[in-house]
Design a protein that fits this description.
The structure holds two protein chains of two kinds.
Chain A: H1 9-29, H2 33-58, H3 62-91
Helix pairs in contact in A: 1-2, 2-3
Chain B: H1 2-22, H2 26-46, H3 50-75, H4 91-113, H5 115-118, H6 122-126, H7 147-158, H8 164-185, H9 189-192, H10 194-207, H11 210-243
The chains are: A mainly alpha, B mainly alpha.
Chain lengths: 105, 244
């Protein structure tokens, strides 16, 4: 069996959609805030993959530049999010997102 | 060869993603997130985005996942999550249904965008991308470029007039992130120095009269509320000690 088949953009987009939906499903299903953040990272990665594959399809460097910006936003988001998680979990060490359903410490 | 790489990397990425969603221990979930990130990095190499592949491994696997692990260990929440209890009835079933619908929609769009189905060859699409600014000469990818060329192109484009403003904004965003993290995780003053606040009234109570004592107790009533949280923190610290 020869592996001469060309991997087009649609393969990458399908994989990106799969990763995104796994991340979205995890975000809805899990209750640990840390794992919910990891699921957000999964979704951002899926978007990055779509950006790069579209960039290659369109022969445009903008896709890769966008991925760099997404990376920066993801890093800032994780830092702030984990800081909030640390601040909240210091008081409520049960590590469930249901604990923080009201907006006060 | 590209197909073999694609399917192996896709398998790694999807398996890691399923691990993130399904594993109960947060540490295991973070480690399978690393697998996903490596898989996506391989895809980036496959797509000739060499710089992004390196950045993906360094920033994501090297910094962000380590940050996750650090917080997991710091909080001592590395125990299994209860997957059985369901506070909102039918939430998980509805979530699976919704994500299945989302997946079908995503695959449909992916297929619809492929050149074979719509009949739009990628060559035609190439000609209508970049239209303005100094980035014209550095805005397109040359085929089969060596990795150094990729980095050079990205650097030129980032500091061209097209993207440099966004680049500055991201610098501002990172600064806000750092300051915000410090502000959020800092223990407030009422938590940090309860002992010097408590001591002086006791001394005054011994030397002065009863009126002073009553005044002090009136003044103390808001302060005592702030003294309470460290007492609540005690079990938290015990957990940390046990974790060590």
């Amino acid at each position: 069996m020869t592996f001469a088949m060309a991997i087009g953009t649609e393969y990458y987009l399908a994989l990106s959609a799969l990763l995104f939906t796994i991340g979205a499903g995890g975000l809805l299903v899990r209750r640990n805030p840390l794992i919910m953040f990891m699921c957000i990272e999964l979704m951002l990665n899926a978007a990055n993959l779509a950006f790069v594959s579209f960039g290659k399809e369109m022969n445009d460097l903008g896709g890769q530049i966008s991925v760099l910006f997404v990376l920066v936003v993801a890093a800032a988001e994780v830092v702030i999010g984990l800081a909030i998680v640390v601040a909240v979990m210091r008081r409520r060490p049960k590590a469930s997102i249901d604990e923080v359903s009201v907006l006060r410490g | 060869m590209e197909a073999v790489t694609f399917f192996i990397a896709a398998l790694i990425a999807v398996a890691g993603a399923c691990g993130v969603v399904s594993l109960k221990n947060p540490v295991h979930a973070a480690l399978s997130l690393v697998a996903t990130l490596f898989g996506v990095a391989i895809h980036f190499i496959n797509l000739e985005a060499y710089f992004l592949a390196a950045v993906q491994v360094i920033v994501y696997a090297g910094a962000i996942v380590i940050l996750f692990l650090f917080v997991i260990m710091l909080l001592g929440v590395d125990r299994a999550e209860d997957m059985e209890s369901d506070p909102i009835i039918g939430q998980r079933q509805l979530a699976l249904l919704a994500t299945a619908g989302l997946l079908i929609l995503g695959i449909f769009i992916a297929v619809a965008f492929s050149g074979e189905v719509t009949g739009v060859p990628p060559i035609e699409a190439q000609q209508s991308t970049f239209e303005g600014g100094l980035a014209i000469d550095s805005g397109s990818i040359s085929k089969g470029v060596p990795p150094e060329q990729n980095i050079k192109e990205i650097g030129r484009a980032l500091f061209s007039t097209r993207y440099v403003f966004a680049l500055e904004i991201t610098a501002l965003l990172l600064t806000i992130g750092v300051v915000g993290a410090v502000v959020l995780t800092r223990r407030s003053k009422s938590e940090l120095e309860p002992i010097p606040v408590v001591e002086p009234p006791a001394l005054m109570r011994n030397s002065e009269g009863e009126i002073e004592l009553a005044l002090n107790e009136d003044e103390q009533s808001p302060i005592e509320e702030t003294i309470d949280p460290p007492a609540e923190d005690l079990p938290n610290e015990e957990v940390e000690v046990n974790g060590e």
